[in-house]
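Suppose a colleague, Dr. K., hands you the sequence of a protein chain of 327 amino acids and asks what its three-dimensional shape might be. Before reaching for any lab equipment, you can write down a predicted structure in token form. Begin with the sequence itself:
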Amino acid sequence: MIKLQVLRYMGILTVMKLGVFAVSALSLLIAFTWIVIYCPVSVMKTKPVLENQVNVHANRNDMSMDEYFGHYEDEVRKEIKNAKVKGGPKVMEKSKETPKGGVEVPMELYGDNAFQSMIDQLHTRQLAGFEFLAESMNVTIYRQPKGNAGLYQYKLYATLPNATPDQIAAVFLDNQYRVVWDNYVTELYVVQKNQIGPDVIYFNVDFPWPLTNRDYVYARETRRIKQNGKDFIVIVMHSVTKHNVPEKKGAIRVSDYHQSLALELWNGKGTKAYIQYYDDPRGSIPSWLVNWAAKTGVPAFMADLQRACGGLQAYLDKNHRKAVVVE
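The predicted structure, expressed as tokens, is then:
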């Protein structure tokens, strides 16, 4: 049975080779006729080459089928190689096209000083120009006016007694898990993964009815920093305005967004955190509503984040995944 299949396969190859030969011979004949009729001078100049080809064809009866087609395969390879060396047609090579649009990350916002500032403010509260807003569930919030739209930027200091910095970072940076535990997030994925510097992220938030969803395109970089015998995890995020992510129907694109977190082990098993935050949600949302959401929603989010840390391992086991690790 196997021998029969092999013979059939060889027969098919033979027919294919003969077909290729017939087509090639016909093409050569047509080309030669055209040259003789229209380019007699060129024919005289290329006589040695044609004579060489005739000799090859004349001796083909002394060659096996494999030797015959092997000879022309070698000739084709030589022609392709010569064409590339001479800068000939590039149809044999697949071109690499640059995507339209592209992504430009504001790298000046991700310098060492930005990460160091987060660590410094984790230990020393720098509140000049800020006012106390609220304190709830181990979270203290300060705010400062920004711009003329009645919006504020915020500084938050929190302690999370039941989750370590590594657990919080693993939950915060796991895009798939975030969609599971955060009821307000409808879509979250990496737009561009970079070996050096921040990654670019797409983020879609479900605002309660009758408000329209908001979506974000932002750059996110995470660093583990060892300093004075202590271990810190710092996450810095800023909106990206030059990118190739089209706006989606049913969502308003937020183009001014900034958030950073600094995390440190606290009390042996918990986390001490400092967060600074600002975004302009645009649209017709009253500024008082935005500020009220910051006052009440942020402590609730921190509580949800801590609960999500408790459910992380079960989620990873169920989905056969590993936790995100900050190197």
